Amino acid sequence: MDALDPIESVNTFIGTKDEGNTFPGASMPFGKAHSSPIGSHYAGYRYDDQQIRGFGHFFLSGAGCWEQGGLVPILPVTQLPTSFDHRRYATGYSHDGEIGKPGYYKVKLDRDITVECTATTRSGVERYTWGQNVQGTLLVNVGQANDKEPVSASSIKVVDDRTITGTVETQAFCGGRPYLTHFTTRFDRPFQAFGTWTPAGPKPGQRESAGGAGLRGAWVTFTPGPVTACTALSQVDEQGAANNLAAETTGKSFDDIRNEAQDAWRRELCCIEIETDDWDERAVFYTALYHVLLQPLTGSDADGRYRGFDNQVHQADGWTYYEYYSLWDTYRAHNQLLALIRTQRSKDIARSVLAIHEQGGWLPRWAYANQETNCMTGDPVTPFLVDLWRFGHLKGFEEQAYRALLQNVDGIPPESSRFQGRSGNPNYLKNGFVQYDKRFPKKGQDTDPHHGASATLEYALADATLAIMAEALGHKEDAERLRKRGLNHRNLWDHSVTDRGFTGFPRPKLGNGAWLNPFTPQGPEGFHEGTAWQYQWLAQHDVPGLITALGGKAAAEARLDDFFAYADLLQDPARTVREKWVVGPYDYYNQFRYNPNNEPDLHAPWMYALIGKPEKTSVVVRAAQTLFVNGPAGVTGNDDLGTMSAWYVFSALGMYPAVPGTGEFVSHAPRYTKAVVHLENGKDIVIKAEAADTTKTQVVERIRSGWRNKVKDRIELAQLQSGTTLEVDLHTVSN
């Protein structure tokens, strides 16, 4: 084993406990299909599960809502079960010998059955091995998926002695609408017997089963020996699934596909090299990078067809359509990391989001397959696309993107549209804030007035970000009014509110302009998945205004010190973050500290640097990094489609994109003596910190490079993209 092989450095079990919601099975980078075990958890597999229900073929990595796939689970057995409910026929397994690496998963089930998993971009692949002289049977379940993933209709057909096809209609994420997936499964050996089941029970020799919700599937039985099954997915049609299978698996053995998958991952993961002798350090870093590179998912079939947001089939010629966008999460770090290290994919991602606008009429917020779920609040698509423009990934589409963004920030989708957009815009544009109104009608899980205060702050950040793009494109009048709207967060600052000895907090306003009363900055009212304590820092685009509101730089520093329990961090960082910061992954309220489990305050450690105290940023970031460990509980909170992992990668490298749209990275102490980021343009970013020692609390003393920064604690995107060497001198803080 090569200790420096990034494949061997990844531990796909990281995040499979404590609601990290990652999956340990096999995938290709940005793959459409997967192969991974399903247990009793809604995200698929939880490390503590005692049984495996099957090996499913579609998952989301780190998402927080219930409906997360697990489609077409297959389970190997030695005889037909008495019940075709996978909760009843699930089998025990052992962690002994279990392997989770990029592109490969292996586990030993009860009754001496071994399962190995790999994947192509659009197919999940398993090799099933039973004991010697055992006639093996595979249960192909289309009526069930992950726990809490309802299947509203399904069909399955035994086509010939090697092929099964079918459809699964499942509920989209976070209360979205049902959507249809086609699949084709092909085995490398002919089966000797088969049958299907319905809610009424098994029917040996019958080739088809179709209908609404309920137990449904097929079984196939083989003569003794291993069997490889390849399952391809398509949201387009049956032919799409068949084409995907043929294009990616024809003539290839399981080992061929596994080697191709692992080679693909090796190429992806080699884009960043780190120097460390600590095996756990390598595992945490490269697993985070692996989680970043899982999504968004490839949406177009092998022939370029994809199902758009108008429910019509479209063609992506010469580019790849990507889908599944958790924008409220990913605009904060994941998007910028991909934009830096995966430029061609980021260009296609930008084009895909514009295609959603072309076909659906509006820009998305949480886009699942070919529908908008209206999950979460604010306006994340604006900083998301503006950053892609800033990184140079919208060339040729700048004005198209700008017009779509302007429609979004200035308007509201009509009632007939399934998009909700900035539903708080009428009051925001008229009065400068989104009203807090829990009765406001919604089209999906969330709507902005239900969280009016945080929505106001998100809108203001988005407006200020778009103002940067407007100015650069020559839209001067737009830029000026958007800059002014970027200051709307000030409209919610109530200087009369006091908490923990600090005065002044953002406070929700009602539709008539009155303050919400009663109100506490630690409470849930008006803020989405956070409190006024966490959201007060969501004004990084207006640091002067925030400092003024807080009472000056000294007062701002004192409030940050309290927010992070800074004095305690200096004494015992690892203990402090776990005892004073971390709460349950879904406990967002009744707190006044930094919440490293969730997105609203992910940038807050860099607020120290933005107010002129960069050394404290390094202290806080080093402390937060202790939450990421080499074990199943090694991700803090939901990984949210790679967002938390992207946060870790940036934090470990010593730079973070704290202010969207600026192309600036705020520096802090890196973790490694040397790291090299290989860009797709052939340039390298080299980060050297010879004194780096993660056992100590360290801050940046000086950064040397050949680049003249406008501000010494900022690293500019142009510098990174042109290739640079940053020599970072570190100073150890005495506790």
TrEMBL record:
GO terms for molecular function: hydrolase activity, acting on glycosyl bonds. It is an enzyme of class 3 (hydrolase). Keywords: Glycosidase, Hydrolase. It holds the Pfam family Glyco_hydro_92. Residues 241-731 form the Glycosyl hydrolase family domain. InterPro entries: 6-hairpin_glycosidase_sf, GH-type_carb-bd, GH92_a_mannosidase_put, GH92_N, Glyco_hydro_92, PNGase. Its EC number is 3.2.1.-. Residues 10-234 form the Glycosyl hydrolase family 92 N-terminal domain. The keyword Nucleus does not apply. PANTHER family: PEPTIDE N-GLYCANASE PNGASE -RELATED, SECRETED PROTEIN. NCBIfam families: aman2_put (TIGR01180). This is GH92 family glycosyl hydrolase.
